From TrEMBL, chain A:
<keyword id="KW-0375">Hydrogen ion transport</keyword>
<comment type="function">
    <text>Component of the A-type ATP synthase that produces ATP from ADP in the presence of a proton gradient across the membrane.</text>
</comment>
<dbReference type="Pfam" id="PF01990">
    <property type="entry name" value="ATP-synt_F"/>
</dbReference>
<dbReference type="GO" id="GO:0005524">
    <property type="term" value="F:ATP binding"/>
</dbReference>
<protein>
    <recommendedName>
        <fullName>A-type ATP synthase subunit F</fullName>
    </recommendedName>
</protein>
<keyword id="KW-0406">Ion transport</keyword>
<dbReference type="InterPro" id="IPR036906">
    <property type="entry name" value="ATPase_V1_fsu_sf"/>
</dbReference>
<keyword id="KW-0813">Transport</keyword>
<dbReference type="GO" id="GO:0005886">
    <property type="term" value="C:plasma membrane"/>
</dbReference>
TrEMBL record, chain B:
<comment type="function">
    <text>Component of the A-type ATP synthase that produces ATP from ADP in the presence of a proton gradient across the membrane.</text>
</comment>
<keyword id="KW-0406">Ion transport</keyword>
<comment type="similarity">
    <text>Belongs to the V-ATPase D subunit family.</text>
</comment>
<dbReference type="GO" id="GO:0046933">
    <property type="term" value="F:proton-transporting ATP synthase activity, rotational mechanism"/>
</dbReference>
<dbReference type="Pfam" id="PF01813">
    <property type="entry name" value="ATP-synt_D"/>
</dbReference>
<keyword id="KW-0472">Membrane</keyword>
<dbReference type="GO" id="GO:0005524">
    <property type="term" value="F:ATP binding"/>
</dbReference>
<feature type="region of interest" description="Disordered">
    <location>
        <begin position="211"/>
        <end position="231"/>
    </location>
</feature>
<comment type="subunit">
    <text>Has multiple subunits with at least A(3), B(3), C, D, E, F, H, I and proteolipid K(x).</text>
</comment>
Amino acid sequence: MSQEIAVIGSPDFTTGFRLAGVRRFANVPDADKAEELDDAVEQMLADEEVGIVVMHDEDLDHLSRNVRRSVETSVEPVLVTLGGSGSSSGLREQIKRAIGIDLMDEDQQ
Amino acid sequence: MAKDVKPTRKNLMAIEDRIDLSTRGHSTLEKKRDGLIMEFMDILDQAQDVRSDLDDAYTDAQRNINMARAMDGDVAVRGAAAALKEHPEITTRSKNIMGVVVPEIESSKVKKSLDQRGYGVVGTSARIDEAAEAYEELLEQVILAAEVETAMKKMLEEIETTKRRVNALEFKLLPELHDAQEFIEQKLEEQEREEIFRMKKIKAKKEAEEAEEALVEDDEEVKYETVTADD
């Protein structure tokens, strides 16, 4: 099954990806992020034709707790965050829980 | 708890069978967990490389698009972005790592040549082309990262469940079974001791009875003898 890549973020963030041909995107202006980002993300997660969701790492802070957790643990589609502090924090938490050691921390030092 | 089981030999045998099975299952699961963690370490190394490449690609792409914006204006960049006709598509196939199904993502139409992009070559500048190219590069890295990170997430889930199973067997099921086994063994031994004691009692009683009977018989004999003596 062929799927597409989706981008969620401020217009500045999405423009570049659209230049590379990404068709599915949700523009959420910085001012409205607190209210509208949750809906945009949920919509993308529910869309079966989306295989990868690209977001800016800082935008994750605007999400409500539940949506953030579901987007971080989602496998289909999978979330890839850009910018910010490297690898997504949800993954890091999961590693800590599953293995018992904060592997990412060790490797970053 | 252990006291719920009936102390019968049949139950003891059943529990011994379960202990056997659980111990075997425990060691197998332990091996699986260790194997998964080893595989995970490999993927983690990969993921970290992919991450740093991704971050580099992102800063590069950002610089390029900012340049394009500064030189050509925001409207021109957005106009070009809206004109794209070819869309990157991804197809996922699955791969199996120690029973964990991880995706292999293949992409098509990410990299495009100038004439495939769809915006007019005349109306746009080389900087927009560069920005588009940088973002195409970034998308490829994103797809790689998505593949590796999905694999990591799935592996982590599997590691967690396996670990939970190992711990449940080791700290809950096996101790309970051992308790039950010990309980039944003790009970059976006690029953056996009771049985022996009972037998001894019965034997003693029987002996006493026999002795009494013998005494009575002796008495009777003596009487009989006296009777005959009287004759």
